[in-house]
Specification:
heterodimer; A: two-stranded antiparallel ribbon; 1 helix; about 5% helix; about 35% strand; B: mainly beta; six-stranded antiparallel β-sheet
């Protein structure tokens, strides 16, 4: 992967321990858990459990290919039936450091809201609890994010 | 079964000049237990037409069904109430399947605009469909298009000029989108870029760009106008009729935009697209959150042919939220 933007994850150094492999500085690649079987079969893929240590890994992390560490989720992005033949196309977003951020809005505090059940009716069956706050996710540099699109091999 | 209403939500929609299905995003988390509409335009009219006056739907009723109150012909006050099982209300879950079931057709014309033939497709103007598994015309296989006109067995892709394609497609599979995407703004695939001092870009599905937004244009070499690939442009004008955006990119000296041949596309090509880049360049949007990434997912109530009123009707809707006590 071209190094046009800054890495997020830092090198995991090699240790003298059979079956592990060092991991270089890397971007995060955000994908869907359907990709697990595909990733496992990619030449050069290093499973998370083969990292020299687990201290800098994330819960969602599955492994690394070259300088992309894959974070997978069941709500990863899929473009349904978007290939020529109608197969699902998986979007894998590769992100550099500070490519996106969450902006908190000035002058608006978080609010915790509770509506007692008595307002629901004489039987007081339903209460409402929630919160609201002003925070906006935003891409800060679109050139530091790119989308690798793929289908699953049969 | 009992119902406990907690919080009604209301709003108004206006039917288009050509009556078509209406999709109403409903706030909440699917806890809608009753949905009702009132046709503000038709109430009180003494017309000979038996137009819909109001309609309603309960959570435990099947999708597509409704109780419908229609005017008695010639009366401003009297009405009749019927139950329908099709063409009523359909509640669409944004966490459910994004696409409806597949329908197979016999072809797509290589004309301007392109016309798709699928017998008894049932689609409406404004619907977005994905087309794939075409025989021939692989340039557009996998793309989504907004439907701009319909007949019983055909629908028109008004934003696709396929007249330059070598041959028509002789088969096609289509799936209608229940909803487009959770997040705004969103990238849109390109079907045409003009050679002009301010390039005009035609998009395959209805766009929601606004003047002032900053976008980046991606156009692979296989689509001709590779000089525009990666350039930033500010949207200076939009057309909802032609589904275009005009950007301040001078493409006068660029190569013409052209789809690759079907044979080239068969090998696999990246489609050209426009992507909002997360910031607004000019006033009045500068420093506002117009281009923020916003999760717009919502439950959608679709109004079918028996409840969407007639052309230009103003329809008030009320969604009753709460819990079902059984």
């Amino acid at each position: 992967m071209a190094r046009h933007f800054r890495d997020i994850a830092k090198t995991v150094k090699k240790v003298i321990d059979g079956g592990t492999a060092p991991v270089r500085d890397a971007y995060f690649a955000l994908g869907h858990t359907d990709l697990i079987g595909q990733l496992d079969n990619v030449q050069g893929f290093i499973q998370k459990w083969s990292y020299p240590n687990q201290q800098s890994t994330l819960d969602a992390e599955w492994g690394v290919i070259a300088n992309a560490r894959y974070l997978l989720s069941s709500i990863g992005s899929i473009s349904p039936n978007a290939s020529l033949l109608g197969a699902n196309v998986y979007n894998i977003f590769h992100c550099g450091r500070e490519a996106f951020c969450a902006i908190e809005q000035d002058g608006y505090s978080a609010q915790f809201i509770y509506r007692p059940p008595i307002y629901d009716g004489p039987l007081a069956l339903n209460a409402s609890v929630g919160y609201k706050f002003a925070e906006v996710p935003r891409i800060t540099n679109d050139t530091w994010v790119f989308n690798l699109r793929c289908t699953l091999s049969s | 079964m009992g119902y406990s209403y907690i919080a009604p939500v209301t709003g108004v929609v206006t039917q288009a000049s050509t009556a078509a299905a209406i999709s109403i995003p409903v706030p909440g988390f699917g806890d809608i237990i009753k949905f009702e509409i009132f046709d503000e335009t038709q109430f009180g009219l003494a017309s000979a037409d038996t137009d819909m006056l109001s309609a309603w739907w309960y959570k435990d009723m099947a999708n597509g069904s409704a109780f419908v109150q229609n005017r008695q012909s010639g009366s401003a006050a009297a009405s009749t109430t019927n139950m329908v099982t099709t063409g009523g209300f359909t509640l669409i879950d944004p966490t459910g399947n994004q696409l409806q079931s597949a329908k197979t057709g016999s072809g797509i014309t290589n004309a301007n605009p392109a016309v798709v033939t699928i017998n008894s497709h049932g689609y409406s103007v404004g619907d977005v469909v994905r087309l794939y598994a075409t025989t021939g015309m692989l340039q557009i296989a996998g793309l989504a298009f907004t439907i701009t006109a319909v007949s019983t067995n055909t629908f028109t892709l008004g934003y696709l000029d396929a007249s330059g394609f070598g041959a028509a497609a002789t088969s096609v599979t289509a799936q209608k989108f229940n909803y487009i995407a959770a997040y705004y703004p969103r990238r849109k695939e390109i079907t045409k870029i003009s050679v002009a001092s301010s390039a005009v870009i035609t998009l395959s599905t209805t766009h929601n760009f606004t003047v002032g937004q900053l976008v980046r244009v991606y156009c692979p070499a296989s689509f001709g106008m590779s000089q525009i690939n990666g350039l930033l442009g500010t949207v200076t004008a939009i057309s909802t009729t032609n589904n275009t955006i005009t950007v301040n990119i001078n493409s006068s000296s660029f190569s013409s935009f052209a789809f690759p041949t079907s044979a080239v596309a068969a090998v696999g090509v990246q489609m050209p697209f426009v992507e909002p880049v997360g910031e607004a360049a000019t006033s009045p949007y500068q420093n506002l959150l117009d281009d923020a990434t916003v999760n717009q997912s919502a439950y959608i109530m679709q109004l079918g042919s028996n409840v969407y009123g007639v052309a230009s009707d103003v329809i008030r809707w009320i969604a009753w939220r709460g819990v079902v006590q059984s």
